[in-house]
Amino acid sequence: MIGISDKTMAIHKDKLYAGYVAKNKEVVEKIHALFDSGKADGNATYSELRGLKTAESFAANGVYLHEWYFDVLYGDGDNSGAPELSKALAAKFGSFDEAIKKMSTLAMATRGWAVLCWDTKIGMLKQYNSDAHDQGGVWGCLPIIVLDVYEHAYFIDFGSDRKSYIEAFWKNFNWAKAEAMYLKVRGIKV
Question: Domains in the chain, please, with CATH?
């Protein structure tokens, strides 16, 4: 990949992402064990069950967001493989180049995740930011482009230069994969 090292990706996938996968499995197992023990307490102020369910949404979103992020990497940045998505981005943001510029600026404005999604309630593309895995996501939205802007995604290669990392993300973007997701979800309205 251009600018994003194999070392960064190995740490990102093999340690951080793998940790979310393992922790999600562990939390789900603890929830089942708690119910099996008959000690599940549904207290909304504090209970072991409440803590586990909060941890479950954080860990599950950590898994899913990373998977969507990894899914759209390892490309050549050429958007010709995404004619429909490119057209939709141009319609939403004014032009394709303006879409990349605005999405990059939006990514600079978040602490964790910048997500372009299909919002099934309004039946259109929307961009939402999320400072944490379990905060900022919007129900009914299906991610198409997920950009991880936590420091672990770029610090080894770019130090604190998040802007250069975001530029490298677009150079390595797999537009064909994003196009496939867009074609799958567009038109869904609930």
Answer: 6-71 (1.10.287), 79-185 (3.55.40.20)
